[in-house]
Specification:
3-stranded antiparallel β-sheet; globular; alpha+beta; 212 residues
C-alpha cells in the first residue's frame, strides 16, 4: 500500500511514531533538545533520531512539569513540595509560592492543548471518556519497547497529573499493556475524584488568538 500523507495533529493523536521521527529529522536534533530543556527536562537526553521515539529516560516529575507548560499558556513553574511550615504558635517559618517563567509562545501552547484534547476525545487516550471522565482535558499516552513502561500525562486547566506503570527492574508489563490501556485508566479514576463537585472548565485561548 502507498503511504498517505499524515498531519502532525493526526500523528500525535494516534501515536504514529514514524511521523515524529521524520519531524525530528527535519527540525534537527539540537533545537528539540533545547526545547526540552526550556520545558524543564534536566535529565540526560541522547541526541539522535531515536529521541523522537522517547528513548531518553525522563523522571515523572519532569514530565508533569513539562506538560504543565502547555496547560499554563507557555509558562513553566518550578515544582516544590512544601507550601509552608508553621511552628506550634502558628508563626510561619517557611513559605513557598510558585515562580513562573514564560518559555513557550502562548499560541503554540494552545495549539498543543487542542491537539492533545483530541488524544483523549478520539485518539490513544479515548478510554478515558469510556470510563466516564467528561471534563475538558488534554494529554498523551506513552509506551516504551516491549511494553516495559506505560505512561499517561494529562491535564485540565488547573491540574496536571502523570501516571507511570512499570517494574523497578526492566521487564515487560505484558502483551497489550500500553499507556492507553494501563496508565490512562488510573489517570481517569484519579481525575474523576480530583474534579468531583467542581464545574467543568475549558482551556482559555490566549489573548489575540482567533479562538478568543
Amino acid at each position: 500500500a502507498v503511504p498517505r500523507p499524515t498531519t502532525l495533529h493526526t500523528a500525535l493523536m494516534y501515536s504514529i511514531n514514524v511521523v515524529t521521527v521524520k519531524l525530528l529529522e527535519k527540525l534537527g536534533i539540537q533545537p528539540v533538545v533545547n526545547m526540552a530543556r526550556r520545558l524543564g527536562l534536566t535529565t540526560k537526553i541522547t541526541p539522535n533520531l531515536s529521541l523522537g521515539l522517547g528513548t531518553s529516560e525522563v523522571t515523572l516529575q519532569e514530565m508533569v512539569q513539562a506538560f504543565s507548560v502547555f496547560a499554563n499558556q507557555g509558562v513553566r513553574v518550578e515544582p516544590f513540595g512544601i507550601l509552608s511550615v508553621k511552628d506550634s504558635s502558628g508563626h510561619v517559618l517557611e513559605n513557598n509560592a510558585p515562580v513562573g517563567q514564560e518559555v513557550l509562545d502562548p499560541h503554540v501552547a494552545y495549539i498543543m492543548v487542542n491537539t492533545m484534547k483530541d488524544v483523549i476525545d478520539h485518539g490513544t487516550g479515548r478510554i478515558i471518556r469510556r470510563l466516564g471522565f467528561t471534563y475538558p482535558a488534554a494529554g498523551k499516552t506513552g509506551t516504551t519497547n516491549d511494553n516495559i513502561d506505560a505512561w499517561f500525562i494529562g491535564f485540565v486547566p488547573d491540574l496536571t497529573c502523570g501516571v507511570w506503570v512499570g517494574y523497578d527492574e526492566r521487564q515487560s508489563l505484558g502483551k497489550k499493556q500500553t499507556g492507553g490501556e494501563t496508565a490512562a485508566p488510573i489517570w481517569a479514576e484519579f481525575m474523576k475524584a480530583a474534579t468531583a463537585g467542581k464545574p467543568p472548565k475549558d482551556f482559555e485561548p490566549p489573548k489575540g488568538s482567533d479562538a478568543e
